Structure of Oligopeptide transport system substrate-binding protein:
Amino acid sequence: MFNKKSIAVVLLLGLLVLTVVGCGQQGGDQNQGADQKQQEETAPKEVKEEDKFGGVFEGRVASDPPSLDPAHITDTTSHKVAMNIYDGLVEFDKDLKVVGAIAKSWDVSDDGLIWTFKLKKDVKFHNGDLVTAEDFVYSFTRMVNPETKSERAWLFNNIKGVEEFQNGKTDRVEGIKATDEYTLKITLKEPFTPFLSVLAMPNAAVVSKKAIEKYGVDYGNNPVGTGPFKFKEWQHDNKVVLEAHKDYFAGRPYLDKVVYRVIPEASPAFAEYEQGNIYTLVDGDIPMGQMQRVLTSEKFSDELVKIPFLGTYYFGINTNKEPFDNLKVRKALNYAVNKKAIAKVLKNGTVKPASGILPPGMPGYNEDIEGYPYDQEKAKKLLAEAGYPDGLPGEYELIYNTSKSHQAIAEAVQANLKEIGVNIKLSNLDWGSYIKRVDNGETQIFRLGWIADYPDPDNFLYVKFHSENAGPGGNAVFYNNPEFDKIAEKARGMKPGEERLKLYQKAEKMVVNDAPWIPIYYYTRVAVAKPFVQGYRLTAMGPLPLNTVWLNK
């Protein structure tokens, strides 16, 4: 049960409505229906507005954020902090609908190429400077500037003139213009259906040119945005402290401060939560040994939140590395892993074993994809056909980032693969070092989870598997299939509807058949929040900024 006064939980229902209207078709996880409850943000009527102000929100991140520079944010840890510091033109609301942030309105031409945004005139950076359309021209141009080396520059590749700018043929991007002080015009090369959702990503936030020129390469440690909270302090590997932006254009947040403590392991984080030293656990931080108690104990009945989550947990196989460049070897690894056992035993039955790439609730989700059921004999046969009748020679590295839960799953995969003659060495790394190795292709097998940046299959299939995104762009398995590339390129420009989703389903089957991932499970968010935390918003893509949160203590 939930305490209706404790937490505003936004479930997948709103998202499903959006996908039915916008895309004509959607999939859902029927096994989780009993756990899905929708609540509206509520507060006791007797509490006056002025009584909500004040207090410090004590939160937790599982690692030191790699960067708080929007141009370099590629992970959920950095995003969790940065979304409170920055704003973009638009943002996702509690129902995952794109709504205006700094943009008060926008229009798109009939051919889907020209997007015109009218900006609010009272938005200030944390240094007091007013935000104008030229600040967005600067921010977006900086994103695609080769000198910035942004891992997410490809998000804007479809803007007219980006390629010419990156090749040094022009000194500005033709498709990004300020037509007056508070009007921004973006022109695309070709229609891109999820473009507005891309602009809601943290990478599309507006940044202060003055601050970047002041801090240079160290800007990621000294962020200056327009968001509800200003950056105050960062004790690396200890905590990040934010304070209220009193001139926030949407009204100052209720909280005076937000403190994100860096606590890598789930057990001490959970102990801190039980002691009341941190107020929410939303990042899969409930220890395996405590999960049943959390799910069944009356103690947590007013704190428990269990919702579907648009994400897939997987092990990536670097297709550039021998012998994993052999399709039969990759398929053998897939058949060898017992995903159902991992979901049932290690995740306490709270997640659904994965057979494909797209998670339930994502438009285009295909529940009929069979994937690779656990079949050790079939795995051994495939290895023999690949030329390895006695298993793979030598030892291979599987890397994962620090977490007891990740370690337990990696050990289960290690044991499964040993049974077919594949010897695995496990390597545990801190998140910053880990993601660098993954992005640089310095891996053989690695653990990752992909959580949707925007609720569209393009965000999974194009981002994670198109050849142009190899490496830091998102395609960490270095998958390269020209036929897949053509399909993904075509689908992202099509109008919403059933034909577009069918094309994505075809693309997904192609990837599954090529087996660059070992999909393990589809996420379900099991979270807890203290009953005194009011106005906390958690969606199928994660938490929203904390500007609506207040503490009823």
Observations:
- Residues 127 and 224 are 7 Å apart (CA to CA).
- The radius of gyration is 23 Å.
